[in-house]
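Title: Prediction job returns without error message
Component: structure pipeline
Severity: low
Priority: P3
Assignee: unassigned

Description:
Job completed but the reporter wants confirmation the result is attached to the right record. Sequence as submitted:
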Amino acid sequence: MGRTRANSVARTVSAPGAVPLHYQYEKASVSPVFVRYDDTPIPQTSAIWVSQRKPSSGDYQKDRAYYLQWGPDSAYAVELGFEAQLFFTAELTGCGIIVLSGAGKTVLVHHNIQVTPPGPTFFQNLFESNAKKMVREAAAVGRARTDSLYLMLQNIVASTPGLTSGKMLGVQQYGGTARFFGMKRGGSWRFYVNRPGSDGYTTQEIFG
């Protein structure tokens, strides 16, 4: 998308846990974009192309979109407003996405939490195989990441009354890289993940 308008920071929260996490809860700003829709061979579907600057060719229309930034070893949360009907965030390359919804509100979180695996004990160092070590480290990293996300989500839900449902998207679901975007239709947001496959890109609705 090129350069986008930064969201203003409403507050920065420190969530202690197995991995101390600092995240920013932001007021959504809209960025001007140019959008083109193309029909695809799949019935009732279309491809969407988005650019900050109007391309020299193609039937692009001016529009507006919400954009959620990201940062290494951090998380950003934003509550979407009513000024745009498109949402985008940076390409996912190991990051996670959380969608929270309810009472006419929609909150998006883009997080990148890096966890250092715990070192082995004396006996693990002597007797543990490489396969068991990988399983143990993966389990410990998963628990630490979940603990930190749980504390962060508690804070978001407590400060945003009415949120009643949600969805989490991690690298285990989308693979190495993916794009995440949302479209508002009929007053409701729908969110999709677009990831590379053997026959090009595939798009799947994950929340809506």
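Comment from assignee: result matches the submitted record. The chain has a mean pLDDT of 81.
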